[in-house]
Amino acid sequence: MEVTMESINKEQFGKVLKALTSAYYAKEKREAGDLWQARVMGNVLSMGTIYSKAGYFELFQQFVWRLTPVTFILVGLLGLALIKMDFYSDYEFTKAFVSNTSDLVTLAMYSGS
User: Would you list the DSSP string of 74-88?
Assistant: First the structure.
C-alpha cells in the first residue's frame, strides 16, 4: 500500500475536522480503566530503552561525568585544608595526625627518615 500526499477538498477537510472535534469532546466523557492502563504500561516497558547499546567508551564516559562534580568538591576541600594548615614539614604534618610520640619514632624508623 503506497501512501501519497494529496490535497483534500473542503468537504473532506470538514469531515476530518468534525471527526477530530467529536473525538476531542468524547475524551472528556471517557475514563480509562485499570486494564487499559496496565496494558499501556506493559507496552511501554516492552519497548525497551530509546538509547542504543552503548560500548565501553560511552559507558566509561558516563561514569566519568557522574564523578566529575564529586572530584571537584574533593579537590576543593583538599586545597582548602592545605591552605588552612599552611605548608608543614613532613614531621609536623605527621605529628598533626599521630597523637602518640612513640608512633612517630616507629614511623620515622620504617620510613627511612
Answer: HHHHHHHHHHHH---
Residues 6+ apart with CB under 8 A from 90: 113
Mean pLDDT by 10 residues, the chain (113 residues): 64 88 77 79 78 72 89 92 71 66 69 62
CA angle 98, 100, 104 (to 5 degrees): 65
Burial class (CB in 10 A: 0-12, 13-18, 19+), 94: middle
CA distances (Å), origin 2, targets 5, 7, 9, 13 = 10, 16, 21, 21
Largest CA distance in the chain: 100
How long, in residues, is the chain? 113
User: Against a cut of 0.70, is the pTM above it?
Assistant: no
